[in-house]
Each structure stands twice: as structure tokens, then as C-alpha cells.
Amino acid sequence: MVKICCIGAGYVGGPTMAVIALKCPNISVAVVDISVSRIQAWNSDQLPIYEPGLEEVVKKCRGNNLFFSTDVEKHVSEADIIFVSVNTPTKTQGLGAGKAADLTYWESAARMIADVSKSDKIVVEKSTVPVKTAEAIEKILTHNAKGINFQILSNPEFLAEGTAISDLYNPDRVLIGGRETPEGKKAIQALKDVYAHWVPVDRIICTNLWSAELSKLAANAFLAQRISSVNAMSALCEATGADVSQVSHAVGMDSRIGPKFLNASVGFGGSCFQKDILNLIYICECNGLPEVANYWKQVIKVNDYQKTRFVNRLVSSMFNTVSGKKIAILGFAFKKDTGDTRETPAIDVCKGLLGDKAMLSIYDPQVPEEQIMRDLSMNKYEWDHPIHLQPMSPSAVKQVKVTWDAYEATKDSHGICILTEWDEFRNLDYKRIYDNMQKPAFVFDGRNVVDMEKLRQIGFIVYSIGKPLDA
Ligand code: NAD
């Protein structure tokens, strides 16, 4: 029986390994992590992450050919294929701080693999890493090799949170990069054999190591760039009376452009887009390509500008002050169908409003109170950031209340701010909400989810990103 071990039981490692276990009953899959609480949660009824369809897969496989454990060394030493899916956040200190990827977790995993391995291993980069990381990993592994053959593969993950399970079942492509040596080719084939259990072979593409590593950064940069492009257009729409949804529709019908990822919003979030573009910027700078770096910087600057613009529009619409006013925040996660709040635009928007002394009443169906309070209390690392964020002061904590119901959150509020496109926000009883609010009642829709005309008929003053403004 082939044995797989995945180091890192996070948003990528957990779902990816659960799907491999489901699709490959003849493979034994161990997911290991240094976080005891995370592993306990994976072994309980309360999984550590919310992802549609995940619980079903885990329940089917757990204890059969899927195991979650903190015994990292044991499972690594027994495995034939080791995926490394640890976090690779942006460095906050030292060389490259604010841009470069922090590979501390990766390096420590690689050193541990080198220390405990007694047989040949295929080591797979599942984390998103800077191009050329495999070269560094090879050095660490082969230096300690004791005659063991380590083959490094790059197999970046393209799943999107919120649709992780369906993305894993039916990926657009699986990318495998490896060395062009006989051993390298053998390792590529072994990993291909795993995916071929359910992925059509024409969707499994093989490249050299550096192309695979760079393709992941490139894909995220292109996706984020599309969002910043449409968001830049949304500002122009508001200034001219054009409607961003109509513009996106017209532009997206061009088959060279396509309709996906053209929704205007308050800005992109999530743990990957900003971090991976910063990483790309750093790599460009290190390779003497400042003009290319500047091109990608603009994607982040427009994203920051969009959040600032949204806060400013809200405050200016509410007669230039929100001091003491209750603002209901609907949605805190960075997108629907996830509880993940890493880099969510909601943090920046809430902090902007708290800075103007608003009272916030926050509701998100998947984000618990402790997580929201923790997110708002943390100081964000600033990179050329136009919103000057401060950690929430003890007095600001009193300005925030978290509720478990949209009606409770909006009761007695002066304005509603929609920051995540949860389906339930489309179907709320807005007449009931309007009746229980202070007047004039405002709605600021950062995701273009509400029917603007219907709300205006009820009596709301509505601002929707990139849409014609209320007369
Ligand atoms: P995560 O923070 O949810 O999970 C990483 C896990 O690795 C943590 O539980 C941590 O405790 C564990 N870990 C760190 N060092 C370890 C070690 N030495 N031994 C054992 N466990 C260790 O991160 P994530 O969102 O799953 O992302 C992982 C990687 O995948 C990142 O490089 C990310 O950029 C990339 N990625 C993420 C997504 C996404 O949507 N989240 C999508 C594609 C790629």
C-alpha cells in the first residue's frame, strides 16, 4: 500500500488529503500538524474549517485510510510521498520584510524530513512558494541524505476556499513540476498515478520545477489583477453614471476576456492574493526587474484604494460623520462559504469606521465572535498602506458587538454595510429591517448582492459599488 503523509493540516492540507483518501482507497493518507488543537478538531465532529462537502468526505474516510495525527516524525518516516502544505506567510521582519515569503515553516519541515527519513522519499511542494524554492529544499535534504534519494516535485494547489471540495473533485488542471532526470521522471509518474485515480490525464500537466512554482504565483497574480481592473472601473463608473455590472457583462462577453472574476467589490481578501503578489514583487526586484514589480504593486494599491474609497463613501454619505452611529456589518469572512477571515476587507473597513467612532454590530454566519474580536485587535503589517490601521484600543472594543442574526445586527442601526456575498443577504426581509432602523436608513453594498431598486422603493438610501448613485 502506498503511504502518503501531508505536513500541515490547514485549509489546503486537510481538504486535499481528504479527497485523495476518498478517491484512492488503496492509499493510506496521514495528515500531520504541530498544532494539537487543529488535529483534535480534525478528529472530532467540529472540523477546524468550514468548507461545503468537507465533513461528508472526512467522515467517510477517517479511520479507514485517512488519519490525522500530531506524530509528525512517525508518519513522515513511514511515507513514500510527503506533501508539505505548511503556511508561507509574508515576512514581517528582516530581509524582504513586507514582501518576501517567510519560509521558516517550510525549512523546519524539510530539516525534519531529512532527519527522520530512512528510505527514499518523494517530497511535494504543496504550499505556494517562491520560484527556485525547490533548489533550496534539495540542498537541505541532500546535505543530510545518508544515501537516501529525495525527489522534489512542485505540485501547487489551485483550489479556492468555499468551493475546495468541488475544485478538488474536478480541477481545471493538476500541475506537476519535476527534474528532467530519470529519477525525476519516475517521481512525476508516481504522483501522476495518484491523481489519475480521478483526474482525466489530459488535465494533468507536467513542467519543469521552476515553471510549476512560478505558475502558481502567476495564476494568483492574474486573478487578483482582474479584480483590481474591474474595481478600478467601478470607481470610474461611479464618477460617470455607468453601471459596473453592465460594463462587466459587455466586456466579459468578449471570448478573449471571458465572464469570470469580473464582479466589482469592496476588494479582494484571503490569505493568498496579496501575499503571493508581494512575493512576486520581491522576486522581480531581486531579479533586477523594478518596472515589472511596479506593475504588480499597482494591483495591491488599487485594492487598498477600493477599501478606503468604500469607507470614505460611507462616512461622507452619512453626513460626514459616523461618530456614535450604529453601523451593521453583514459578513466578515473574505468570501462566502468560508469562515476564513485572513486579510478580509472587512477588517480594514471596520477599522476605518471605528477610527471615525462608529458603533459596529457585526454578523457573519460562519465567523465566531472571538475570531472577529481577535482580527480587529491585531495590528496589520503595513506595506504602503493608505489606511493607517491601529490595533483596536480597549475603548474601541466597546464599540463592537457581534451578533448571530442579521435582524438583530441591523436593529436600531443607522446604516448597513454588506461585506461578504453570503446568499442569505440577498433574501433578507428588508422591509422588516427598514422598519426597525433609524431614519434615514442607509445600505452600503460592498458586494453588489442586494436589489438596489427594490431597496430604494422601501425607502433605503443605497450605495452599491460601481452603480449609479442615489439622486
Ligand atoms: P494554514 O495556515 O491553514 O495551514 C498550515 C498548517 O501547517 C498549520 O496548521 C500549521 O500548524 C502547520 N505547520 C506549520 N509548520 C509545520 C511543521 N513544521 N510541521 C507540521 N505542521 C506545520 O495554511 P493553508 O491556507 O492551508 O495554506 C498552506 C499553503 O497553501 C500556503 O503556502 C498557501 O499559500 C497555499 N495555498 C493556500 C490556499 C488557500 O486557499 N488557503 C490555496 C492554494 C494554496
What are the defining features of this structure?
single chain, about 475 residues, alpha/beta, Rossmann fold, six-stranded parallel β-sheet, 14 strands, globular, binds nicotinamide-adenine-dinucleotide
Structure description:
The chain is of the alpha/beta class. It has 2 domains: 2-199, 3-Layer(aba) Sandwich (Rossmann fold); 224-464, Rossmann fold (3-Layer(aba) Sandwich). 43% of the residues lie in helices and 14% in strands. The chain is built from 18 helices and 14 strands. It has helices at residues 13-23, 36-42, 54-61, 72-78, 104-116, 133-143, 164-169, 182-195, 209-240, 244-252, 273-286, 290-317, 345-355, 369-377, 394-397, 406-410, 430-435, 452-458; strands at 2-7, 27-32, 66-69, 81-84, 121-125, 150-154, 174-178, 204-208, 326-330, 359-363, 400-403, 415-418, 442-445, 461-464. The strands form 3 sheets. The chain has a 6-stranded parallel β-sheet with strand order 3-2-1-4-5-6, with helices on both faces. The chain has a 6-stranded parallel β-sheet with strand order 11-10-9-12-13-14, sandwiched between helices. Strands 7-8 form a two-stranded parallel ribbon. Strand 9, helix 13 and strand 10 (359-363) form a beta-alpha-beta unit. Helix 5 runs parallel beside helix 6 (133-143). The protein is globular, with a radius of gyration of 24 Å. Residues 380-389 have low confidence and may be disordered. The structure holds nicotinamide-adenine-dinucleotide. Residues 7-13, 32-35, 38, 72, 85-88, 105, 108-109, 127-128, 157, 159, 161, 271-272 line the site of nicotinamide-adenine-dinucleotide.
